[in-house]
Amino acid sequence: MNYQESLAYLDELSTFGTKLGLSRIEKLVGYLDNPQLHYKTIHVTGTNGKGSVSSMLSSILTMSNIKTGLYISPHLVSYTERIQIDGCPITEEAFADCISAVKTFADKMVAEGEESPTQFEVITAAAFLYFAINKVEYAVIEVGLGGLLDSTNVVKPEVSVITNVTLEHAALCGGTLEGVAKHKAGIIKEGVPVVTAAKGMPLEIIMQTAEEKSADIFIAGSDFSSVYSTFDGQYQYLRFLCELTGTNFDYKLKMLGDHQVENSALAIMTAGILSNNDERINRQNIIDGLATAKWPARFEPLKLDGQSYIIDGAHNPAGMSILRQNLDKYYPEGKRVILLGILKDKDIDAMLDYLLRDDDEIVITTPDSVRKASPEYIAQKIQNHHVELFADMYEALKAARHLANREKLLCITGSLYLTGELRQVLVDELKNVHK
């Protein structure tokens, strides 16, 4: 298969939807000689922040001169973003080759009357295979959904990370917060240390599971923490504290937001545990790794030709609330131009209420999705603001830049379908500048 054929195959598999359970993935990786056991892994789950923590850990390990795989989901623009080594996405050719290899055994399972693997299971197996072929030393593996019955839960990690637990995917994870917490705690393995920022009842469940599995547990806010110091327009400056080890040091992070303060603390604590058995993972490499860590389109600052941008994939009211808080914290002064595109099945009224300040200027366009809301539909919900409408997102970007005129912050948000595409435009321009 070539790359386009591999995408067509994955699209066919999407008809099977999301099915939790390990029987299919265990069979699939068994045919592939269990590639996920050929390297060390760090397994990361949680309601929010698992992608950020995974990215930070990958950056720390790579900075420690360790060949490191990273498996994340979803992607912004290309499936290749999901499978990376040392920060470099898999090539389209290698992606197609790995999907093709996995398809051979998926087809075998179906031919033998077994249930077809899901799309996520096939991509997961392909990632495991790619990491083994390329002989990575470590792989940071982000859970797709839940934990206990997630396809990634065939790894045997060095550390299990549970960022936090709130009510999400409840229908697939027991229907209650307690059920969700039990699914997240399902990644805890016998004798494997656990790092978490969970609180309340979910933390109690995680602690109980860790005790049952004889797993040491390290809890954010009591065993370790990070605190915010200042912001220089690009980086936030933080301090890590751990009473258990008597550790405290300063570091900087380009990934902005209060939530990233806690996420970085989780990454540091996890790296510290790994360093007990690997002297390459030292304090300086942790500091340098965090300074270079990035998580695209999540309150991501960019500066291009004198214009400051924030790219944020907030696509629901909760996301918009956090975006507004972070805009007010890091950019309290000056006016803002908001470039906005939202899907029609979202709570648009609540999203706008959370996001907009009275003096914001707004450019509305359409995300690249059949579910897009028309600019006119969104505009009728906005009163007393300067609003411009564009059907074409690239024309909208041009207009928003003109409005911002290097004097106002330009924030691109509303949908990952929009932010992913426009971020790529800006990144390509940045590459040309630095040639």
From TrEMBL:
Entry GO CC: cytoplasm
Cofactors: Mg(2+)
Reactions the enzyme catalyzes: (6S)-5,6,7,8-tetrahydrofolyl-(gamma-L-Glu)(n) + L-glutamate + ATP = (6S)-5,6,7,8-tetrahydrofolyl-(gamma-L-Glu)(n+1) + ADP + phosphate + H(+)
EC number: 6.3.2.17
Alphabetic keyword roster: ATP-binding, Ligase, Magnesium, Metal-binding, Nucleotide-binding
Record's keyword annotation contains Transmembrane: no
Domain Mur ligase C-terminal: 298-415
Family annotation (Gene3D superfamilies): Mur ligase, C-terminal domain, Mur-like, catalytic domain
Pfam families linked: Mur_ligase_C, Mur_ligase_M
Key word Metal-binding present: yes
Any GO MF annotation of the entry: ATP binding
Family indicated by similarity: Belongs to the folylpolyglutamate synthase family.
Protein name in the entry: tetrahydrofolate synthase
